Fold this sequence. Notes:
The structure is a homodimer. Helices cover about 50% and strands about 15% of the residues of chain A. In chain A, the strands form six sheets. The first copy, chain A, has an eight-stranded mixed beta sheet. The first copy, chain A, has an eight-stranded parallel β-barrel with strand order 24-25-26-27-28-29-30-31, surrounded by six helices. The first copy, chain A, has a five-stranded antiparallel beta sheet with strand order 1-2-5-3-4. The relative contact order of chain A is 0.06. By secondary structure, chain A is an alpha/beta fold. At the A-B interface, α24, α26, α28, α29 and α31 of A face α24, α26, α28, α29 and α31 of B.
Amino acid sequence: MTTNWVYRFDNPGSADNMLLGGKGANLAEMTKAGLPVPPGFTLSTSACHAFHEENGLTDSMVSQVELSIAWLEEKTEKKFGDPQRPLLVSVRSGAPISMPGMMDTVLNLGLNDETVVGLARNTQNPRFAYDSYRRFIQMFGDVVLGIPHYKFEQILDGVKDSAGLHEDQHMTAEHWQEVIAQYHKLVSKETKQAFPQRPMEQLKLAIEAVFGSWNNQRARVYRRINKIPDSLGTAVNVQSMVFGNMGHDSGTGVAFTRNPSTGEPGVFGEYLTNAQGEDVVAGIRTPKPISQLSQEMPQVYQQFTEVCDLLERHYKDVQDIEFTVEQGKLYLLQTRNAKRTAQAAIRIAVDLVDEGLIDYKTAVQRVDPEQLDQLLHPGIDPQAHLQLLATGLPASPGAASGMVTFSADEAERLARTGVKTILVRTETTPEDIHGILAAEGILTSRGGMTSHAAVVARGMGKPCVCGCDTLQIHERDKSFRIGDLVLKEGDTVSIDGATGRVLLGEVPLIEPKLSSEFEQILAWADEIRSLDVRTNADNPEDAAKARSFGAEGVGLCRTEHMFMAADRVPLVQAMILAADIEERQSALEKLLPMQEGDFYGILKAMDGLPVTIRLLDPPLHEFLPNLEELIAKQAQLQVRLQYEPQNHQWQQELAEVQVLLAKVKNLHEFNPMLGHRGCRLGMTFPEIYEMQTRAIYQAVAQLIKEGFHPLPEVMIPLVGHAEELRRMRRLVERVAAEVRVESQVDFLCIVGTMIEVPRAALTADEIAQEAEFFSFGTNDLTQTTFGFSRDDAEGKFLLQYTSEKILPENPFAVLDAKGVGQLVAMAAEKGRAVKPNLKLGICGEHGGEKESIAFCHEKGLNYVSCSPFRVPLARLAAAHAALKI
Amino acid sequence: MTTNWVYRFDNPGSADNMLLGGKGANLAEMTKAGLPVPPGFTLSTSACHAFHEENGLTDSMVSQVELSIAWLEEKTEKKFGDPQRPLLVSVRSGAPISMPGMMDTVLNLGLNDETVVGLARNTQNPRFAYDSYRRFIQMFGDVVLGIPHYKFEQILDGVKDSAGLHEDQHMTAEHWQEVIAQYHKLVSKETKQAFPQRPMEQLKLAIEAVFGSWNNQRARVYRRINKIPDSLGTAVNVQSMVFGNMGHDSGTGVAFTRNPSTGEPGVFGEYLTNAQGEDVVAGIRTPKPISQLSQEMPQVYQQFTEVCDLLERHYKDVQDIEFTVEQGKLYLLQTRNAKRTAQAAIRIAVDLVDEGLIDYKTAVQRVDPEQLDQLLHPGIDPQAHLQLLATGLPASPGAASGMVTFSADEAERLARTGVKTILVRTETTPEDIHGILAAEGILTSRGGMTSHAAVVARGMGKPCVCGCDTLQIHERDKSFRIGDLVLKEGDTVSIDGATGRVLLGEVPLIEPKLSSEFEQILAWADEIRSLDVRTNADNPEDAAKARSFGAEGVGLCRTEHMFMAADRVPLVQAMILAADIEERQSALEKLLPMQEGDFYGILKAMDGLPVTIRLLDPPLHEFLPNLEELIAKQAQLQVRLQYEPQNHQWQQELAEVQVLLAKVKNLHEFNPMLGHRGCRLGMTFPEIYEMQTRAIYQAVAQLIKEGFHPLPEVMIPLVGHAEELRRMRRLVERVAAEVRVESQVDFLCIVGTMIEVPRAALTADEIAQEAEFFSFGTNDLTQTTFGFSRDDAEGKFLLQYTSEKILPENPFAVLDAKGVGQLVAMAAEKGRAVKPNLKLGICGEHGGEKESIAFCHEKGLNYVSCSPFRVPLARLAAAHAALKI
């Protein structure tokens, strides 16, 4: 049996996304629904695999394509290469998961030196025919033959210059013929062959190019960022051409059935008259809003809105539609579920429930948790005094400030050194993706709401202002001009993607207000999820903020930040530098009331909810001056005293530096991450943990007296052996008992541990006997399991590891299920085997990442804990996880 | 039914070590064999447990003791408290595993103000009676009543002074009576009660004190060092006294049935006439060799040698015997298997096989692998010019040099900072154990071959010279004098424990020669063991040395040491500081022939045996100058240039320092242990691994051409993800293929990996697909599994962790079976599940530690690899492991 590689749009089988790609399946579905789709056929993703395996098209593919072209010729009553009625087709990629702009497309295929004459004659529009032909040569030359795009542009500019013209639309048929002649020469020179004239040869080459483009670099980068498997492959869609550039009753556009930025109902989109689709997507001409079509072509507009409604009801989701009007007749070229901002996703999901199209569980699944992050990004303070430079299109919401940079590479380089940038470009191309990823925000001078920059930025949740045409960008000078003002690379600007404003300098940002739809989606998510969501918060403000976002407790309160406050550092240093335990006790006694105040505040803010407080974790030298600075200072003073031996002040200073240096050197560690920290501090300096425990329970006693319900859970960090926890637990229980007696207040004393070194996971059965809860510290657990420190790895080799796919993901971003996750699962199982009610949570950064949250749900953890701003995300991700199983 | 707490020596049951303790069981066995043992009885270890549970003696214990005393009174025809024929007893501890000197003993119990008169009359020796009584009060006061020993000494010295006497043996009965009177006053003052006069009360108190002494500090320390469980408990032996101090026809001694230092046949030991046993053990008087007894008391000597022979045949092992001669009659007080040096253990084991007493498997088990280390310790070069200071007793073999120190605490403190010390003491006590452990060697001015220092040092395999009485030690001045020479703390001396020599300064050491018995034991071990033993060696000399010790290959050849050679450092630095890959390649090309030479040498030395070569592992900054030094240098130069801005040399130097500093800072890591090292280097700088691989296989090709059989195994370090190994393996295979073509020589290319981060163990099934062998790097695996770095932990908290038993052992010394071992077992199982013939080895330091070797045997590893000097130990330990299962 011969494999079927080719499927006509009207083929009676079901439209399978994986086989036909998203675009092919949709075209087939639309065709079968009787919508006005130009006829065509799809080469399946299986053909793509076979192509890559065989390193080319197989004979059976070619013969099936030839048969399908014959069918198409019959259907359209046109013929490949027929000068009378030439058949022209588009050749487009279409993967199972949409990758807009990532792969190649060829339009107007079938034109050659003869058919162009026929096209001109039949349409009575020679200018259009020669324009189409030159577009085809240009696109084919670029995509299929690999001739650099700028070489075609040079020819075009040369002809325009000698004709004294500036705009393409003023070019005549003769001008285009001149261009075509020069293009032919260029192709012959570059490829050592004439431009292929046989349409079938053109078609085979184009199909090969599209299949080949699955593996071009920008497509691979896009897939990596968007987590699309390399194994999917792309389909190729061959479709008879319709023309939006056949005069002023023709046009082309892209529209959404609802606003993809805000989610507001009503058709939303853009079109250009007398243009082909590429003109809209590429952002070269700024298009008109779709509403204007109702005036320019009222009947077409009427038909289009009806089609939109039909499609939305059919797919039960907002559609992103490409259409063309050819001499007053509407054609749909593509429809797909629309990408949307988080705000739009939420609004649309809630509206679709209200409209009865979907149920609430589906609505919850329609919102990508990662996207929520955008909504929680700060906006610009409306009270702030702003220096408005210009206004562009509000292409992707959110506000950002950063250093102006003009290249994606530079943006990436600066991001690695921690510098925030705004990437400023005339327009962006798929080659800029890494820069868009690295920048805080994107600003372009050309292109509309569906331009490349806008689409990509929205997908990434980056602020973006597009089509800001008052900007004059001089890439070579690394500067841009707005009116009289010249800004250079390194200057700071801000953008507001919600309003399109471009502002001078850095601006003050404020927290966003959340919509009622947002609250609705999260309320539904709360009904669905079984995982609790807590927050990581070290102070009452963060705790309150997180509580307002729905946090159900604090999963990690780090006490070291409390030690870093300016007024405490001298006390903390005195405690560390203490010569003996008495001196240390006296410093600790001064810290006690401060710590008590810290805990009082946070327990009050979280009244009635559990608050997991981790006792001091970092090595003590973190609180002392830097070793290298002290060494430099000592060296300087020693030399100064060689020159001025009698300087008493320096003698004094040197003596002080040397005392401090000795202590710092004594505390210095080769590998602080693996050093004297966590409960190892508690074992060697029990007085520190005693002070902290006392502060916690004195605050508890006070709050209970005031009528509150504090629920602290004391967490011992870095336990590797059950004995450590046993001793630290006894310490905490002893101090709690003391405070109970002193305060005459009764309260619970709950002690648990972090699981953050492999040994703790491996011996979780022993450790569980001493613990009332486990909290997985997956940051440290990832470091110890992989044996690399995040600080060193991210700067030195991890980027290469993820970009070259040595590791599938950055394990600090997405929990490594196979390695680290295996330890988490093992600890959960061993722990619960000993203590079935053992409470399990995660407090590493993974607690706010959706895949990791799904993992935690699957392994039966009780809660995840994340930063306050990721609490809504975690609530939603937990619901997704619950729906998945 | 009443529990039986008390067992008479002649009780007919079997002599159970666990119940009666070693001493009690032996006394029972000897009694039943008809040997001349003074009658007595044993309170069992069960009684000890009950005592600790009940916090005192129970009524049933007391009544059983009373019954047994009645039996003893009948047997000896003496009576407790009877002034006519007083019964006197000794009360001694005796645990199931011998702990010499660790617990308390009371002699002469039963004496009081009345019975002493009777004893004096009956023995016609008032001096002896009063001396015994004062000894009893003194010992009882110290051990039972807790009165400091020195207070008794003060009284004794006072009486001696006023009598104008220097030696105890010149004291008369009247002098002792004066001492006793003052002792009574001291006891009344210290305890607010008179010295107990009722023997039964004395006995109960003494039994309680001995049971209590199981938990005194020095006993606990001893058990920790010797890995004796705390749960064993001790028995108490109550035995009627015999007296070695009843005149010149009496005496007491300690003897071994063979020489415990050399293993030579023949009775070996020491005795003192007119003395009690404590005098010998405490080392206060220097005793006479046992051979002298044949002249002093020929009949006793004859009987004693017969008893020795009988005991050795009975126990099938060398015995350590305490005996007393009371007025010409021989009594045996104790026998036990003798502690012995490694040399003696080997000689004795082989001799006993020759004599038909034991089989060769038993012989192998008779030698403790840890002890072998002693034999492999270097001795003093006989060619060396030595400055002999003095000669003492050769108490424990081996030679050592170190700084003189006079206190155990100081020795321990210095050891922690890496300073080697010789602990110099008049005599050592159980309180000095930690110092003996920390010092390189022990030198005492008093005490014999069975003194505390000698016994403990031999057990630990430390060189020791005892009884070197020309030394005058002034502890207060921290100095000692030999003749006119005064040496102070901090001066360096050397000792030779094999000859007893004490030498000035540091001395050159040489390798030991191994006896034929040593070879015999190891040959037997080789027959028994299934684990292979390889060595860790980085150069041909070490490899050859290890091969001579029986190594069956190299398990770890570290290539970084090859980079540290003085002539290579500039090239290595040039390679690291290279601005681009071309510069780096050029530096690598210069290193290539050197590396090739390294591998040529080591593969040749190991001709026909496998050599596992680990590609470069440490982070590159280890080869560059120290960051702190550069910072200090920069600071100094900057200040100098402020004072002398025109100094060109300094300007030049500063510029150079700054360039270097920038690079060093760039390579600097927060946690080098978890940084850019191992295969992460190979991934980012593949040219380094390519050079190393090329060097290996070029050496292989050359050796094959020369007729050798090189068997390299290339090991990729620090793999955490299978993909790392896959890529590095492809690199190695590619270079190997290149060399095959270039050299026209065919050879195998074997690639494997270290398992040294937890993730590698957790995903060993994936990694095994790319590996031909796993080598467990348990040093790093311990660090990452526990999450502590050895460098930081050992200096900061690990000592406290092991001494307070938070951890049962230092996990860097003994493999942590529960945590790290769990990963080893998991990796072995997962790896073998995928690849049943996967070769498994261990190359961490644990590869040379006996318990860890037993673990490796149990988990089915193929080999262990250890430092050359531990190869014999590992062969023996592997045999022990095989015999155990």
